[in-house]
Amino acid sequence: MASSFTPIWLGNLPHDPDKLVQAEKDLATVLAKACADMGEPVDAKDLSFRFHTRGSSSNGQGLGFGFAWLPSAVAQHLVQLGRLTYTEDADFATVRESRGAVPPPPAAAVEGEKIAVAVGASFVAEEFWADFLLALSSWQQIFGEARVAIDLRISQKHGLSELGHLLKQRRSLLRRFPAVILWRPSNLLGAEKRVESLIAAARSAEHVLIFMQVKESQTEEEHQATHDFQAGLRDVDLCVVGWPDLVTTYPCAASNPAAAACAMLLRRCTTALLGRKIKVFVSDCDHTLWNGIVSEDGVHGLKFSAPYLELQRKLSELQKAGRLICLASRNSSAEDVLSVFRDRPECVLQLQQLVAWEVHSGAKPESLQRLSTKLGLSLDSFVFLDDNFFEVEDVSRRCPEVLLLHVPQKEEDFKALLQHSWVLDAHGTQVTREDEQRTELYRQNALRRAERDRHPQLAEFLEALKVEIDLRQPTLGDQSRLSQLCGRTNQFNTTQLRLSESEVNSWVQSETRYVLAAEVKDKFGDYGLVASAFCSFTTSSLVVDGLVMSCRVLHRGVEQRLLQQLAETALARGKAQVLVRFRPSSKNDLARGFLARLHAWSSCPDVSGGGNGYSMECGEQNFYFQAQKLSTLEAHHLQDFSTDTAGDAISRERQVLSWTNVVDAEDWMVETPDRNWTLRAASWPQLLQRIAVMGPDIPQKSKACWLSAGDGFKMPTAEELVPLGQTVSLGGLMGVCSGFALKKVGKFAAGLFGALFCFQQALAYQGYVTMNWPKIEKDLTELLDMNKDGKFDAGDINVGYTKVLKVFQSLTQCRSMEMVAHRARSRLAVLCFLLTTAYGQFLRGAGDTKVVVPIPHGRHVALSCKGAALRLQLVPAHGRPALDTPMIDPSVPQETCHEVDTSAERGVSTSAGSMTVNPAGELQIRAKGGLLVTSSLPITGDHDLVFKHHKGRLLGGGANSPSGMNLSTPKINPQVGNTGVYSPYYYSEDGYSMLCVVEHSDVNRYPANYELKDYGDTKNVHWSFTGLWDCYVMPAATLKAGTEAYYTLTGRPPVPPRYAFGFIASRWGWTDRVYIEDTLQRFRDGKYPLDGIIIDFEWFTNETDYGYPPGEGKPYYHDFGFNSVLFPEPDYQLADYRLRYNVHVSGIRKPRIGNTKLIKELDEKGWFLPNCEPSGRSPPEYPGYACGRNLNYALPEVRNWYSDSIKPLLDAGMSFWWNDEGETDFFTFHWWNLAEKMAQEKTLPEHRFLSLNRAFSPGMSRLGATVWTGDVTADWSWLLHTPGTMLNWVLAGAPIVSCDTGGFVGQTTADLLIRWLQVACFMPVMRVHSEKQVTPHFPFLWPKASDTIREILELRYRLLPFHYSLAHSQRATGNLWIRPLAMDYPETPEVRDVTTQWMDGSILVAPVLKKNSTHDIVLPPGLWYRFDRAIKLSQQAKGLALGKVLEEQEMLTIQSTGKVLKNLFVPLKEVPCYVRPGTIIPTSPVVQHSGDIGRFPLEVFIFGGQDGTFALVEDDGWSTRYMQGEFAATSLEWSDGHKTLSWQKSGFAAQGFIQIMAYFISVEGTVQKSAIKDFSEAGSISFPAQARWTEEVYQ
After folding, report:
1. Given pLDDT bands bounded at 50, 70 and 90, which one contains residue 154?
2. At what angle do helices 364-375 and 389-398 cross, to 10 degrees?
3. Among 36, 235, 258, 440, which residue's Cβ finds the most Cβ atoms within 10 Å?
4. Where in the numbering of this chain does the DUF5110 domain appear (predicted)?
């Protein structure tokens, strides 16, 4: 719209939408005539109007007013008249000038430019095209009236066989333009290969695609073909419109599909490509997102019916597409509203998807304005949804630029809103990485604003942010983002450059042009690609044709670095000048202001004759810079602009802004045109600080000082500032005095408190008093818990600090130096409190109940507690602290430790039991009830400890893969090695667990061992130690209780990310990028589920370091980087693999260094392990090649350095680590994982840490570290030992175990691979691996076995909800997910030594481990179901005939006597799995990756005969927020008497199931299937009491 056009306000307009359309035409005619009469001729079609409506423009009611844009003289004349008659019936509109904020005029179509949309079809039908072309004429007229120029192009070649080819052919219409493919189900029949080709072509298509069904499926075959076709397109980024969706949205499709096609084109294409750029959706809550009112009905009284959930789903999809979602509600409590998202799992819109909210009793327009300020986005990019008509009208009146959606109060009217409100359509635009991260980016900006408040000086702020700017030329993967950046950026877009992806590509590939892109990150996160310069060259200059930068990085030094780099590029190409073109618009004053200030700084000579160093040509303002001078520009020059005089070059109006508006302002003080100064400050202390710093620079002639404080107010004049100065001085003096007094009193109080505390601890140590620390901690927590979240942390300190400030602020109207003093005092008080608390915690730890008892030979025994465990130490008379070890969890909750003192014994006790010692030095360990569990022989030496052994075995010491057939560990020498790990721990069936800690040297053997010795009449357990030792004893009556106590002491494992529960493909020998991407594509094309890949040495280097001499490396070896053969574009590739294939990538890591320079540098620092000789190692893992190069990760400085070194790899997109050959020291893997976790916390602090390690030490699993069983051989004997190794390692301290499925060393066979995969399917992590010379264990490389392997993988993914819930239970309770049968059935002697079967939750797994497909099996007595057969039966299209007698191989139940069944034959496709009556197994339908979990109904298998329960747990699958309670727990309960499955839900799940169905298997072996039911809230499913197998569906 030309600048000479002025908006006028029109009132008294019709409300009826039909009359409003006619009024627009009449007004255009009358106003065109008025313009002509006044000598300002304007064509009626060129006049712009904007009429305001309630609801969407397509089906809403007019609000009676709007705007028209007219030549200024005509507008002035009509305002003076005050009214305008626009019809022959004397209808008139009131006219006045526009007041306040005026929305921009609607964008008109550019003359001569059209959006071309190509149309193709899977069929050839002339009669259809006749209908189609007939409909085009009417739709083209509608396009014209909507001022949308669209060109519908019909592809000349039709038919299914040509479509795939045309989508790939660069010159075809379907390749060059956004394409719409029309298809009929009948064309899909018998054309499987052509359909697959079409789907593959659609995956690689560059443009927005719409696949639209234009005929209803008539037969069952057509229904199935339609389903398969849509399923194949499900994970492609396009829109698939089925016939039911089409006829529901556009009823005309039933009679005229061609007309519906045009409607869909208008809806999907023109809106997406030309529509208003909406960035923010603000929604009301009550009766908008749910049915009910939070403050009246309560959180759990709200109802979530389908329309409300569908609106939430729409908003959720928009958030994932890059829009920001906010709330604006008039509820009194924000916490109540947010609790709905946390506590009501049926909410589709998730709490973490919200970027901001305004929940208070204030008006909605004010809330919108505050949100606009917070987000830094103008209101014309907002959409507001509300059910209240008066709220909508209020926003329309006070914020007319906001687009409004009136949510209907009747649920049945929701349908029209959701289907016909185009603004809610998330399809049609390319979603970039920045879109997906946009909500998180805006949250990060909130953290940056807080950082800004802490650093009032801009230079300090930039330094604190640790901004990193990466300038580079764009790659092919950047085209979408650069096009989006040009299209969406207004404020810092120098020429309003708008480029499509193809145009960006032309710029990038042109030899005469130059494009420079900037990626930015700081300590809070990655901004992504946020700036770019599009340049060309003349004979003497580098010309910046467009400089575009996101407002998110304004004043971060990015603009300076861009121009500085462009200047260097100009000099390198022999250009003396840099010319920056500037074309003014209504929104890019910010860019012009920067260029003007930059021009003043550079002091350029006048190169254009303009006198001011810039020229004006045809409305374009060009800035010239000397390249040499510009090349010296740096980020800190921002401060030089603080008080510059370049304001004359910028047209500014004096403005008073709130602090939130200028948080990112580069100028603290700006001179306005009338020579007044605007001083911006967050608060009085900052204002006074800046006056003190900049006082001399403030011009004496300034007439007034403007301060932004809240709403803004005018400061007194210079004369009125005198009494203010006196107030400041007096307040400052009083503040200093009171601060000094508080300091003195505080020191005395802290000292007195400390002395009393020490005295109390001394009394406790001598046994005079016993402190109930849990009660003290509970009471103190309740007292100090300011935010009432149940714990005392930094959040409570912030809340308390804020309350103190509010009190101080209420005492004075002027926040002067007294305010500074108050802040200083409050901070001093907080500091004193923190120091006192820390000191108290230290004293508390040192003052835990400890009993030191003298024993013979001048020795002393110290007995104390750690958690519920009992700690035993041999100590000097004065005692000593516990040995520091990574095996013990430092955060283990401390229980009350009581002293035991009788005439004969002294010791300590916890809730688990007691440990005492008598004067002879004999220990007695008793269970909770006082029952003696075991006792020791007298302690006579410093390095020995002997316990009496009465019965049973020692379990949990670990195993070596070749000898993993036994659970009992009678003799252990703790060490870590390839395929073998042994721990200084055991569980004794006498009834206790024991873990021993010793002083440790840097070797992979642990200097402690034990042995169960049999003397005939007696048995003893002999411990031998080197150096000091501590032993932790945990009385426990069962193996289950003992193992839970062990994991509580060493730390329970966190829940791995959801992708770890899928399938991971690994091999040694990935060759290049093409091989990687071809492998991923073959997995997806073959429908083999996959979630991750692991790449060996070759991902970071092109050679191994095995042949390097001891202590030496190679100068070209890269320890921390990507091999460019496999990863030429690592950032792009890794993101692409996650987004396109839903695959996470990991690479191998070695514990050593291979680069010569690094080896020398680190060796000088003493950072390598000292042990170089392989002698003394068993087995000798490391001959000469690793000697002198293994990092000593036990050193904190090594861990810090290593975490910083691998952080860029995580930044690039590596998801997890595969740690190999770390058996250099007993604790290398632990400290190594700690360093890797530190790196992840720096990069992705909320993401769960995951690693796979070749060995472990106790306590390592609490970091998120998992383990695999080492480099096993592809042989049946190694498969036979795999389950036993897993079970031994689980008991020894590694609860999450995997293996090199198929065998690493040697060539496997198809049968061996299948049987090994069947085992891995029921292990915590399922992964294949192989060495370089053999066939990788990828299913498509084994054609004869591929179908069977696919079935195994599908079973793995079906069990994912079951396994995921077990992992949650394991973390919460310590109850092992994978465990030996002896743990669940201790009274069944036949299973006590079984290692070829195991419990996977409630599933008893009994795989075949022999080449001849036979196995021996033992089932505890009672009824068992064949789970594997039941789940296969449920997948059959048709069930068994009613009354059919099942064959033996089909039977679902078996009655066991408890005896071993030998040499049972099992077909290759079966893996026998058994469950008990009352078992509930939640499963998922088959998906291709874990990210699809929850998209389909939950399928629950119920095995009748007893009541049963299962706790289903769901969360977002990737973050650590579940540790703060952000997860949903659903209790599934089966009542066998009522044949009813019921469920109750609690908590919040970011990704969960919303529908459920169930299969009931009866004791008679029949199967019943339920209907699909809603799972978003509590409910139930019931089955008939008796039935045979049937396809009938029961409610």
Report:
1. low
2. 60
3. 258
4. 1497-1545
Token duo for residue 223: 């229904």
Q: Which H or E run contains 318?
A: helix 306-320
Alpha-carbon span 1203 to 1201, nearest angstrom: 6
Write the CATH number of the domain with boundaries 5-97: 3.30.70.330
Outline where 344-413 has alpha helix (H): 364-375, 389-398
CATH 3.40.640.10 fits 851-1050, yes or no: no
CATH number of 1063-1360: 3.20.20.80
Domain map (residue ranges) of the chain: 5-97, 115-274, 280-429, 457-651, 652-715, 739-846, 851-1050, 1063-1360, 1390-1594
In degrees rounded to 5, what are phi and psi of residue 1041? -65, -40
Place of tokens 């789970």: 1427
Q: State mean pLDDT over 625-638.
A: 78
The answer to whether residues 1424 and 1453 touch, using CB atoms and an 8 Å cutoff, is yes
Sign of CA dihedral 253, 254, 255, 258: positive
Helix, strand, coil tally for the chain in percent (to 5): 35, 25, 40
In whole angstroms, give the CA distance from residue 1228 to residue 1225. Answer: 5
Distance (Å, rounded) from C-alpha 1500 to C-alpha 1542?
Answer: 11
CA dist., res. 1532 & res. 706, Å (int): 64
**Beta strands 851-855 and 1567-1570, pairing class:** unpaired
What pLDDT was estimated at residue 1522?
A: 93
Using CA atoms, how far residue 169 sits from 163, 204, 205, 238, in Å, is 10, 12, 10, 19
CATH architecture of 1390-1594: Sandwich (2.60)
Which residues neighbour 1523 within 8 Å (Cβ) at sequence distance 6 or greater? Answer: 1054
Class of domain 115-274: alpha beta
Going by pLDDT thresholds of 50, 70 and 90, the confidence category of residue 17 is confident
DSSP-derived 3-state class of residue 924: strand
Residue predicted with more confidence, 1336 or 745: 1336
Q: Is 741 left (phi over 0), alpha (psi -120 to 50) or beta?
A: alpha
End-to-end alpha carbon distance in the chain: 62
List, for residues 428-446, the tens digit of each pLDDT value.
Answer: 445 666 677 777 777 777 6
pTM summary value: 0.56
Residue 1320, judged by CB atoms within 10 A of its CB (0-12, 13-18, 19+), counts as: buried
Phi-psi region of 557 (alpha: psi -120 to 50; beta: other; left: phi over 0): left
- On whether the CB atoms of residues 818 and 731 are closer than 8 A, the answer is yes
Distance CA 983, CA 1006 (A): 8
Residue type, 629: K
> If we measure between CA atoms, which residue out of 324, 587, 351, 323 comes closest to residue 431?
323
Cβ(433)–Cβ(322) below 8 Å? no
**Residue 1267 is encoded by which pair of tokens?**
């383990």
- 280-429 classified as CATH 3.40.50.10860: no
Residue 846 CB: number of other CB atoms within 10 A? Answer: 11
Q: How do strand 1567-1570 and strand 1555-1561 relate by DSSP bridges?
A: antiparallel
78 and 8 in contact (C-beta within 8 Å)?
yes
Say if residues 1326 and 1356 touch (Cβ distance below 8 Å): yes
Task: Report the alpha-carbon distance of residue 432 to residue 404 in Å, rounded.
Answer: 27
Q: Which of 948, 908, 942 is nearest to 1032 (CA)?
A: 908
Superfamily for 457-651?
Answer: Gcn5-related N-acetyltransferase (GNAT) (3.40.630.30)
The CA R_g of the chain, rounded to the nearest whole Å, is 37
Q: How many other CB atoms sit within 10 Å of the CB of residue 1129?
A: 17
Q: Which position has the token pair 């632990």?
A: 1230
What dihedral do alpha carbons 743, 746, 752, 757 form, nearest 10°? -130
pLDDT higher than threshold 70 for residue 616 = no
Strand partners, 959: 981
Nearest Cα neighbor of 566 from 593, 543, 582, 596 is: 543
